[in-house]
Specification:
The complex is a heterodimer of chains A (260) and B (280).
Chain A lengths: L3 H4 L9 E16 L2 E13 L2 E6 L5 H8 L7 E6 L2 E2 L5 H8 L2 E4 L11 H12 L5 H14 L15 H13 L5 E5 L7 H18 L2 E5 L3 H7 L2 E6 L2 E6 L1 H5 L4 H6 L2
Parallel strand pairs in A: 3-8, 3-9, 6-7, 7-8
Antiparallel strand pairs in A: 1-2, 1-4, 4-5, 9-10
Helix pairs in contact in A: 4-6, 5-6, 7-8
Chain B lengths: L8 H45 L6 H12 L3 H25 L6 H39 L2 H7 L4 H39 L4 H10 L3 H27 L6 H33 L1
The chains are: A alpha/beta (260), B mainly alpha (280).
The complex binds adenosine-5'-triphosphate and magnesium ion.
Magnesium ion binds next to helix 2 of chain A.
Chain lengths: 260, 280
């Protein structure tokens, strides 16, 4: 087994303060042409919380988190992140907010023309300008070890397998120590063992760095392992909101289909 | 904790049907709007490009890297095409000159047509094929695989990092490539001349250059900067605005070549007109 648990000093409890939403979305609407993807969606992410987002393919999960970092412009509604309304910020201010947000892309989004090391350096150089080259290398080694890929440092993304790419992009997401992490399907395409390791890693990061996360996943095991709370998206709205026990015991058809 | 399930089925059905109705009208206006939105997109892209050019932070490393990619990596291709250009031009025009008894004019004539027209235009067209399509494909695939968005969340302005660097690299390197192609063309011409006659390379070059005035040289060089900027802008625009899905990468590369080639010829036409007006 990997040694993540021993490496990161982990506290047992996570403190989630329900009076302290770190992201607060109200009445968010987003459509593409005539297709309305999100309809009046309201959602809060509390400080320190791991929020799992479930939903069928195409239900707008990725669109939701892209709206949060301002990659997609919402049609209406507000998105408060650290008490700044993302939808109303200037490019410069948005950049500041983004510095605190880690984003794991569904497709990985590794830079094809750069080595793994350069991929990890890219956000470090730009977001953590205070770090020296030596500190950067230490940091890069640390995150690569966390995802179990220390030997991939000088490989090109094209030389990596799909699962390895996923893990490298996870490393690139966490390398800058963000306060909020948005994971878009962190375990998709990984074997069960690696999936478990990633789930453990997500929990460790949450506890060690006191991050708040939104985790989009279809992987119920991952959801079980990481979720403090789960929401389910359906038809552009929140269909269900609750903890894992509520879902597992639910008699609702749509939910049951997910928790077979 | 219990879970809450909001009941809003009826509302959703109503919305669904209203959307269906409006879909057709929207489709029609969409086609009419496409041209206008495309045009607006281009204007927006160029304004954005200009704005990002004049910000203080310049991505120097990426710019130099692009100069290397665009300039150095095109050298073999330009060497071959330049040489062939001069060679063919010589072989073709020699009989005509012989019949007028003006073979001594050969180096000068070839040099003038190479430097004024053939060199810039053919090099630019080849660069449109190689560089514009390369940019279209590269940025297109970056767009499709969310790499451009990844840059954005890393607080890097992709316009500045990807577009500004590439366009200025092309603007700087294509004139240099043209000069290089001109030199290779004269070399090729010398080879062609040597098939029938016997001239030394130095004599050939000095004969060639004795016919060249500033007026041949300067406008030709100025227009190559515009070729460069056009090729860079078209390549990056097509890539940057590629759609979703892998097939749009191919489309971006393809339409970049077509549009860049066309625009190179149009710019050339305008340049010739302007030169003509200024000289007279
Ligand atoms: N940039 C875009 N332009 C047009 N349509 C889009 C765009 N992004 C997303 N969509 C549409 O929005 C809908 C929701 O997409 P989204 O990527 O959020 O789905 P998802 O819930 O993440 O699904 P999956 O689990 O398959 O990743 C889809 O129908 C998709 O076609
Ligand atoms: Mg998705």
């Amino acid at each position: 087994m990997k040694t993540e648990q021993t490496e990161l000093p982990v506290e047992d409890t996570v403190q989630i303060d329900p009076n302290d939403p770190i992201i607060e979305i109200t009445k968010l609407c987003k459509s593409f042409g005539t297709q309305q993807v999100l309809k009046d969606l309201s959602l809060k992410l509390y400080n320190g919380e791991n929020l799992v987002v479930l939903g069928k393919s195409g239900s707008g999960k990725s669109v939701l988190i892209k709206c949060i970092v301002g990659l997609l412009r919402s049609d209406s509604g507000t998105i408060q992140v650290f008490n700044h309304d993302v939808t109303a910020l200037t490019v410069k201010e948005l950049g500041k907010v983004r510095q605190e947000i880690g984003f794991l892309f569904q497709s990985g989004a590794l830079y094809d023309s750069m080595t793994v090391k350069q991929n990890l350096e890219f956000p470090l150089i730009r977001l953590k300008t205070e770090l020296s080259e030596k500190d950067r290398n230490v940091k890069i080694e640390e995150v690569l070890e966390n995802v179990g890929l220390s030997d991939a440092l000088y490989k090109m993304p094209s030389q990596l397998s799909g699962g390895m790419r996923k893990r490298i992009s996870l490393a690139r997401t966490i390398v800058v120590d963000p306060k909020i992490i948005l994971y878009d399907e962190p375990t998709t395409g990984l074997d069960p063992v690696t999936s478990d390791e990633i789930s453990v890693l997500i929990n460790d990061i949450q506890k060690k760095y006191k991050t708040s996360s939104i985790i989009i996943t279809h992987d119920i095991e991952c959801a079980r392992a990481t979720a403090d709370r789960l929401i389910m998206l359906q038809n552009g709205q929140i269909y269900a909101d609750g903890d894992i026990d509520g879902y597992e015991n639910s008699k609702d058809k749509v939910i049951k289909a997910f928790f077979k | 904790m219990k879970i809450k399930i909001p009941v809003s089925k009826a509302k959703q059905i109503v919305i669904h049907h209203t959307l269906k109705l409006s879909e057709k009208t929207i489709e029609k206006t969409e086609i009419a709007n496409n041209f206008l939105t495309d045009f607006a997109d281009v204007i927006l892209f160029i304004t954005h490009f200009i704005k990002e050019t004049f910000t203080r932070k310049f991505e120097l490393r990426e710019f130099l890297h692009q100069c290397f990619v665009i300039g150095y990596k095109s050298l073999p291709l330009i060497t071959v095409t330049g040489t062939i250009m001069g060679f063919v031009l010589t072989i073709q025009s020699r009989p005509v000159l012989v019949s007028f008894g003006a073979v001594t004019m050969l180096p000068g004539m070839v040099a003038v047509s190479l430097i004024r027209e053939m060199g810039p235009v053919i090099t630019a067209l080849i660069c449109a094929g190689k560089i514009a399509s390369g940019m279209g494909a590269e940025l297109g695939s970056m767009k499709v695989t969310e790499q451009i968005e990844a840059m954005e969340v890393s607080s890097t302005n992709p316009m500045r990092y990807l577009v500004v660097t590439r366009v200025w690299a092309a603007t700087l390197m294509i004139p240099l490539l043209v000069l290089y192609a001109d030199a290779m063309g004269i070399l090729g011409s010398w080879m062609g001349a040597n098939l029938k006659g016997d001239v030394t390379l130095t004599l050939f070059f000095s004969q060639a250059f004795s016919h060249i005035d500033f007026i041949d040289f300067i406008p030709a060089i100025i227009k190559t900067f515009f070729f460069g900027i056009v090729i860079g802008l078209v390549g990056t625009y097509k890539g940057y605005n590629a759609g979703r899905g892998t097939e749009s990468v191919g489309k971006a590369a393809n339409s970049a070549v077509v549009l860049a080639s066309l625009l190179v010829l149009i710019v050339d036409m305008i340049a010739v007109q302007i030169t003509d007006m200024l000289v007279l």
